Amino acid sequence: MQHGWEGVVLKALRGKDFVLTVRGSEQVGEQYQRVRVSDGGLLAACPPHPAMWVRLWFEHEGRAHQRAYTLVDPDPAAGTFDLEFALHDGPAAHWSVAVQPGGTIEATVQGTREAEPPPATRVVHLVGDPASLPAVNSLLDAHPTTPARVWLEAGHPADRDLPVRARAGHEVVWVDRDGAAPGQALQAAVTGAWAGDAAADPAQDWFWVACEAAAARALTKHLRRDLGVAKDRVSSLAYWRAT
Ligand SMILES: Cc1cc2nc3c(=O)[nH]c(=O)nc-3n(C[C@H](O)[C@H](O)[C@H](O)COP(=O)(O)OP(=O)(O)OC[C@H]3O[C@@H](n4cnc5c(N)ncnc54)[C@H](O)[C@@H]3O)c2cc1C
Fold first, then answer.
1. Which of 102, 153, 241, 243 is the most buried (most CB within 10 A)?
2. Where in the sequence is the domain holding 183, given as residue range(s)?
3. Do 71 and 13 have their domain in common?
4. Is 118 domain-assigned?
5. What PANTHER family has UniProt attached to this entry (predicted)?
């Protein structure tokens, strides 16, 4: 598949290309699909790190569309990992439910890097939704003994049943979207919690935000400008854009 100008830019940035082969696929929730893949040599060439993501190329209406997805349980020895898809009306989501074992998908590794809490972080605050749940789980796996507060927005009631890898000392709060614009209820709940009893400590905590673009931007601004959190204690990325 031709990757267009995005492919040219990624090549210039030394993106590495691979072909993943689907081993199987299963529905994890009403609106959530897991696809198991063989890595085509990806993990040997690009050692995994927490919340590592790749750019997958989906064909739609004769064009290549690049979408970011997080590696779930990468196993370099076996050369396998899983991909988890929050379902909605989009080319990547459609592919995840239609693909059969033996199907392939092109992947480019470029731009992913480890986000790590500074040493001696008191509490890790993770803000996300089903799209960033794979990354949230990967961070909880990577920091199993660091106290964590996790806020997740449920776009559908069934999202609350999705598997969160919380351990002792990890508190999980699901916030229902409840008809509001994506990210709005989450933003209000998190901002309130950071100001209230479950207060955030700007000097000792680490804040990881990955949700709908407008909410991610607003929460980052709140952390930096209103709460005075230093740059190295905030990691934030728009995971998707509501249209
Ligand atoms: C670093 C990174 C890692 C990511 N990892 C994952 C992952 O592991 N799993 C995952 O599911 N997503 C992940 N995402 C988000 C995913 O890339 C986007 O949701 C992407 O837009 C989906 O593409 P699509 O072709 O299905 O839909 P698009 O063509 O992008 O959008 C179609 C329609 O669906 C809406 N839409 C798009 N995404 C969502 C969503 N998540 N929820 C509700 N509506 C949506 C859009 O607003 C639009 O109206 C990640 C994003 C980033 C930046």
1. 153
2. 124-240
3. yes
4. no
5. FERRIC REDUCTASE, NADPH-DEPENDENT, NADPH-DEPENDENT FERRIC-CHELATE REDUCTASE
143 in any annotated domain: yes
- Find out whether the beta carbon of 241 lies less than 6 Å from any atom of ligand 1: yes
Number of neighbouring beta carbons within 10 Å of residue 180: 14
Question: What residue's CA is closest to ligand 1, atom 45?
Answer: 88
Instruction: Give the domain-ending residue among 45, 76, 109.
Output: 109
Are 54 and 152 found together in one domain?
no
154 and 205 assigned to the same domain: yes
Domain count, the chain: 2
Q: How far apart are CA 222 and CA 114, in angstroms?
A: 23
> Where are the extended beta strands (E) located within the chain?
16-29, 32-38, 53-60, 63-70, 72-75, 80-86, 104-109, 124-128, 148-154, 170-176, 206-212, 234-240
Are residues 102 and 128 part of one domain? no
CATH number of the domain within which 137 lies = 3.40.50.80
Is-contact 234 224, C-beta < 8 A?
Answer: yes
Substitution site in 73, 240, 241, 243 for ligand 1 pocket (most atoms within 8 Å of beta carbon): 240
Tally of CB atoms within 10 A around 9:
12
| Digitized pLDDT (tens) for each residue of the chain, 243 residues in all | 788 888 888 887 788 999 999 999 999 999 999 999 999 999 999 999 999 999 999 999 999 999 999 999 999 999 999 999 999 999 999 999 999 999 999 999 999 999 999 999 999 999 999 999 999 999 999 999 999 999 999 999 999 999 999 999 999 999 999 999 999 999 999 999 999 766 799 999 999 999 999 999 999 999 999 999 999 999 999 999 999
Which atom from ligand 1 is nearest to the alpha carbon of 72?
8
Q: Which residue has the tokens 């990955």?
A: 210
